[in-house]
Amino acid sequence: MTAKSIFITGGGSGIGRATAQLFAQRGWFIGLADVNEAGMAETAALLPTGQSWSIRLDVRDRAAWEAALSAFSEAAGGRIDVVFNNAGVAYGGPLEGLNQEEIDRLLDINLRGVIYGAQAAYAHLKAAAPGSVLVNTASAAALYGTAGMAVYSATKFGVRGLTEALETEWQDDGVLVRSLMPSFIDTPLLEGPASKATNISKRESVVKAGLEFTPVEQVAETVWQAVHGKKIHNLVGKTAKMLAFAAKWNPSKIRKRGKNLMRVRQGLEG
Predict the structure, then answer these.
(1) DSSP symbols for 92-155
(2) Hey, what CATH topology would domain 5-194+212-237 get?
(3) Which of 9, 28, 31, 92 is close enough to 72 for a disulfide, judged by CB 3.0 to 4.6 Å?
């Protein structure tokens, strides 16, 4: 098989699905990984016949990462050009209101799972170098700490730091490391209440706070640009770009907007 290949976690919906569609349209062989097998089947049905491969993967399972990547490499003709470390969960609320299970789930999927993925991907990407790429989904929440989503924000800062460290560690091996920093994307991650204190959905809380959604297709296009470009961190959407500017020049504006978003999520104002 001569087509380039990309392995995508969280491939059953949202950013992962849109990225799979875009890369498939451009001739790549797609590896889909997710805990949502029904979602993966729906994604695969949107791709050209014979151009994708799927596996159930819980990113918290280190051994499962090894098995999944080895199997995909074989299916892809012996090489993996890109690993897209995209799987994640998003929810928040004041730190004091989160229970241990909620905290551990955020840490385990959003950070530990990304670290495991990077570690397992290294040998495959090195073998495909130069020009192979690890892409990690961080967030605009990695630009400045997000009130009401402290643990989520902490995990995404961790992904940002991991990306920067590995970009240096793997440079001599010809492996590139990139992060994706989207703002609010209208995906299944925004389903459900914004916090335990309100019936307002995550999606509605974003609208009430005066923030915008970025089309998922734009995020997928940015993944393509990250794979083929020189930027380590790749911002996606108006809000992410505003946050990057304000984090440097006007952090008080971010704190004010973050407080407003937190109050909306808690149902304190509308």
Answers:
(1) ---GGG--HHHHHHHHIIIIIHHHHHHHHHHHHHHHH-SSEEEEEE--GGGTS--TT-HHHHHH
(2) Rossmann fold (3.40.50)
(3) 31
Return d(Cα 154, Cα 177) in angstroms, integer. Answer: 20
Residue of 156, 202, 208, 241 marked catalytic: 156
Residue 255, amino acid: R
> Which of 144, 152, 208, 248 is the catalytic position?
152
Whether 238 is catalytic is no
Where are the chain's structural domains?
Answer: 5-194+212-237
Is residue 211's pLDDT more than 80? no
Annotated catalytic residue 156: yes
Banded model confidence at residue 35, pLDDT cuts 50, 70, 90: very high
Structure tokens at 46: 């949107």
pLDDT tens per residue across span 152-208: 999 999 999 999 999 999 999 999 999 999 887 765 555 555 445 445 555 555 554
